[in-house]
Amino acid sequence: MLGGKVMTKSLQDSVSVLKGVGPSKVTALNKLGINTIEELLTYYPFRYDDMAVKELAEVADGQKVTLKGIVASQPTFARFGRSKNRLNFRFLVEHDVILVTFFNQPYLRDKVENGQEIIIYGKYNAKRQQLSGMKILGQTSQDFAGIYRANKDIKALTIKKIVEQAFNLYQDCLVDILPTSLRQKFRLESRRQMIHDMHFPASQKAEQLARRSAIFEEFFLFQLRLQYLKKMNKKEAGLVLNYDSQKIKAFSQTLPFELTTAQKKVVNEICHDLHRPLHMNRLLQGDVGSGKTVVAALALYATVTAGYQGAMMVPTEILAQQHAEKLQALFEKVGVNIALMTSSTLKTKKARQTSLTALAQGDIDVVVGTQALIQDDINFHKLGLVVTDEQHRFGVRQRQILREKGENPDVLAMTATPIPRTLAITAYGEMDVSIIDTLPAGRQPIKTMWLKKSQLNEALQFIDQQLATHSQAYVVSPLIEESEMMDLQNAQETYEKLREYYAGRYQVGLLHGRMTAEEKDQTMQDFKDGKFDLLVSTTVIEVGVDVPNATVMLILDADRFGLAQLHQLRGRVGRGQKASYCLLLANPKSDYGRARMETMVQTQDGFVIAQKDLELRGPGDILGSKQAGIPDFSVGDPIQDFKILQIAQIEAHDLLEQSDFTTNSENQGLWQYLRESGTLEENFD
Ligand code: ADP
Ligand code: MG
């Protein structure tokens, strides 16, 4: 109590209320995503060191272990190299004598004495019977100690102390949030016990029990939120688009090919949604080349026959142009008026005025554009459907603004990022998903070869042969993780070398991430127009650019890329009539690296690759998975703990279906928690 005022504690208090947590520590914690006490208390250790004293016989080679014994020789101290040193002594553990070595901990020199009993934590080499000492422990240290992920501004041990303090102060606030019946059904621990044991388990067993509860809680809250959003979305009134099925049928007969079964299925799903008085929020997932554009065309056409306008938003100018051309060709016979709106087509005042007026008056049926479409002065007459391509490249905000230009138009988001089916449950949870799971028949496979780096010349000769037939080629320069600067240097070097190599024979172009959007578009356009025969590029060519005349892609140091990314890159070739090739140049050092290259050689199915990637690397590492919307879980692993995830999904669903779910007293703890933590932005009705 302060001056008669009761200070109530809340898990939503800022971590700054803790002793010793001043502005700089607050900033450091914020960087780890920790702002509140709740976030701090659910910031669990990422691993635990088993510090319990072990017997030598049960220690595996290379294992980190705690041994208790007696110093059995006079420790010797030696310096070597410039600033390195080593402390050696014999150590009697039960009846065995092993050698202990501490590197670069000179202060231990005065602490270790012959004959003394000590406990040492270190890494054991069984063959040499030697322990590389890491630290000397006191008698009272914790047997099973959590290690926290830290950063350069705050130490793991500091975090641990802060967590300890917070737990002691706030443990009374740790009330149960999951309904009792649910906790009993799955034998989950109380929240207080769970949080305690996640941080300070008395044993490995205690930690595992707590973890099971923590994973359930994390998945359950996540699912609850997703499904709640979905439910609210479903309740939202949407437009009823009374499209003309006869016209749509006639239109599909004008197409130069027959739709695949998969395409027909998704067109039906979309049309069903368009017609319903509910708001459509649908994701169309289909591998590169699976034919999403024509599906979008059918959806847009249906919208037009219902008397509404359609908009398609894509991330780059060149893609906008490409899509506009494709749609134009498709719509020609049915008299749909299509317009392209990008910053360059809207550049002059006059052109802008003409386009905007036409759009606002409804003279334009379908508009294709970049983010320029969301500018303030752009208005539609009657917007019925918004399509986005490569949707993960747009922020939620941008999609929202476009939606607001109509009266809650339906939304179709297209993506080529293949998400393994096992993960679809977590990604895109708030959207309905349509999947095109087969490619049109007769597609030329992209022959993929994996070459060793020493075979670079053979690869270049192969490219020569392709260029000689007037085909074009891509060379993707190695990816240097987290350094766009190095990427650029690399690309430039490769570019210079290839220019020299092809001097007087072929034209070489360069594309990289440091170029402005206009420069990139220009370079791609030049390549498309045949001004270059060969294009050296960093990964920026990834997004759906179509140069049908490009038949070969060489990827340097291919093992540095993720499988999903290699798949996306490879999809840039094989888009025309000619046979196409992908050459992967790589000397992977591990079995894992070799397995990845072999996967690329063996399959072209994006889903198979994504699944393989998942098995080989684990979900946290899938490249592009963040963009694709798979969230970072802190305790649960959507693959390993898939069963729990499924159960959590079902239980969250059932809970939301309860007719009295907001009033049921069993759920009060949960609602309070959801409200306080801002997990649900909107209120339950
Ligand atoms: P993506 O899904 O990558 O956007 P596109 O829509 O660009 O794929 O289609 C790739 C190519 O396949 C295009 O040239 C398109 O005309 C063609 N295509 C689409 N559907 C079919 C089909 N059912 N049969 C044959 N070719 C098709
Ligand atoms: Mg596409």
Automatic annotation (TrEMBL):
Transmembrane helix as UniProt keyword: no
Listed InterPro entries: ATP-dep_DNA_helicase_RecG, DEAD/DEAH_box_helicase_dom, Helicase_ATP-bd, Helicase_C-like, NA-bd_OB-fold, P-loop_NTPase, RecG/Mfd, RecG_dom3_C
First-level EC class: isomerase
Catalytic reaction list: ATP + H2O = ADP + phosphate + H(+); Couples ATP hydrolysis with the unwinding of duplex DNA by translocating in the 3'-5' direction
GO terms of molecular function: 3'-5' DNA helicase activity; ATP binding; ATP hydrolysis activity; DNA binding
Keyword annotations of the record: ATP-binding, DNA damage, DNA recombination, DNA repair, DNA-binding, Helicase, Hydrolase, Isomerase, Nucleotide-binding
Domain Helicase ATP-binding: 273-436
SUPFAM superfamilies reported for this sequence: Nucleic acid-binding proteins, P-loop containing nucleoside triphosphate hydrolases
Keyword ATP-binding belongs to the record: yes
PROSITE patterns registered for this protein in UniProt: HELICASE_ATP_BIND_1, HELICASE_CTER
Enzyme Commission code(s) on record: 5.6.2.4
GO BP of this protein: DNA recombination; DNA repair
Domain annotation Helicase C-terminal: ranges: 455-615
Cross-referenced Pfam families: DEAD, Helicase_C, RecG_dom3_C, RecG_wedge
Domain of life: Bacteria
NCBIfam families: PRK10917.1-3, PRK10917.2-2, recG
Main function: Plays a critical role in recombination and DNA repair. Helps process Holliday junction intermediates to mature products by catalyzing branch migration. Has replication fork regression activity, unwinds stalled or blocked replication forks to make a HJ that can be resolved. Has a DNA unwinding activity characteristic of a DNA helicase with 3'-5' polarity.
Protein name: ATP-dependent DNA helicase RecG
Native species: Ligilactobacillus equi DPC 6820
